[in-house]
Amino acid sequence: MIILLGAFIVLASVAGGFTMSGGNIGNLLHVSELLIIGGAGLGAMIIMAPRKILTDLLKQVLSSFRGSPYGRAAYEELFKALYELFMLGRRNGMVALEEHMLAPQTSSIFQRYPGFLQNQPAVEFVCSGLRPIIDGRIKPDQLRHLLAVELERMEEEAHAPVSVLTRTADALPGFGIVAAVLGIVITMQAIAGPIETIGMKVGAALVGTFLGIFLAYGFLAPLAVNLEFLNTTRLAFFRCITECVAGFATGVAPLMAIEFGRRSLSPDLCPTADELEALLKTLSAPAKK
Predict the structure, then answer these.
(1) Higher pLDDT, 18 or 42
(2) Where is 18: in which H helix or E strand?
C-alpha cells in the first residue's frame, strides 16, 4: 500500500506539473516508446540473471506491496515460541526437543504460534540450529559460527535480485536514449513533411528520453531501495533467532537467551526488559512433551 501511494504521488506530481505548464498529458503516452524501453529493460534482465534470481526478484517485488511481516507482533510470537522450547529443553533435556524439531508443523509448541509457524524459513532456521545440538554433532560454542555461515548465504541470496533490479534501473536512461534516437531516425524520414508532423515526431522521440529517466529514478531505483530495506528487516529477524539459539546452546537460562535476541533489535522493535519479562510471564506452565 505504501509503495502504491508513493507511485501515485510520483505520477501525480509529474503529470500535475506538466499540465500546469501548459502541456497535454496525452503527449506523454506513446506505446511505442514504452515498448522499446520496457522490452529492452526486460530483455537485459533476462540476459544478466539466471531464472532463479528472476523468480526471487518477482517474489520480492510482490512481497514488497504487503510490507514487512517482521513487526513487533512477529517478534513477540518468536520470543514466546523460543522461550517455551528453551524451557522444555532445560527441564526435560535437549532430547525432549527432538520431536518438535523433526515435525514442527505438528509440534504442540509451534502450533500455539500460527504466525511464526507460517514463516517456514524461520521455523526451519530454528530447527536446523537446534538439531546439531540435540544430536551432539557439534559443540555448543560452534553453533554461532554455523548459523553465521547460513546467514551469510541468505544475505547473498537476498541481495542478488536487488542488484539485478538496480542495474536495470541504471540501464533505463540509456534505453530511453535509444528510443529517442530511433524517433529521430523516423523524423528524418518525414523531414520534408508539414512542420506539425515533424514537431509531433520530435516530441515523441524526446518522450523516450523522458520515460527512460523517469522510470529509472522514479520507480525502479526507489523500488530497489525498498527491497533492500525489506531484506534488512528479514535478516534482522534471523539474526535475532541466531542470538537466542546460540545463547541457549551455551547453557544460559532461557530468559537470558531471549534477552540476547532482544538486545539485537532496533529501538522501534525492541521491547524493554520489563516488557519482555511480562510477555513471557503470560505463558502457561512450562510445556510438556
Answers:
(1) 42
(2) helix 2-20
C-alpha cell, 112? 500455539
Who has greater pLDDT, 15 or 74? 74
**Do 132 and 234 contact (CB within 8 A), yes or no?**
no
User: Per-residue pLDDT averaged across 96-115, rounded?
Assistant: 92
Rounded CA separation 279/124 (Å) = 24
CB 164 within 8 A of CB 45: yes
Q: 3-state DSSP: the chain helix, strand, coil percent, rounded to 5?
A: 80, 0, 20
Confidence of residue 288 (pLDDT cuts 50, 70, 90): very low
Cα(136)–Cα(182) distance, integer angstroms:
67
User: How does pLDDT run across 73-100, given as a tens digit for each residue?
Assistant: 999 999 999 999 999 999 999 899 999 9
Distance CA 103, CA 85 (A): 14
Cell 517456514, residue? 120
Q: Distance between CA atoms of 257 and 120, rounded to whole angstroms?
A: 22
pLDDT 10s digits, 114-138: 999 999 999 999 999 999 988 888 8
**Cβ(169)–Cβ(221) below 8 Å:** yes
- Whether this prediction's pTM lies above 0.70 is answered by yes
Placement of cell 504466525 in the chain? 115
Tell me which residue of 176, 173, 169 sits closest to 204, measured CA to CA: 176
Residues of 113-132 as b/e, b for ≥16 C-beta within 10 angstroms? beebbebeebbebbbebbeb
The Cα–Cα gap between 89 and 244 comes to 14
- What does the DSSP assignment read for 38-87? HHHHHHHHHHHS-HHHHHHHHHHHHHHTT--S-SHHHHHHHHHHHHHHHH
In this prediction, residue 15 carries a pLDDT of: 67
Measuring CA to CA, which residue among 11, 162, 14 is closest to residue 3?
Answer: 11
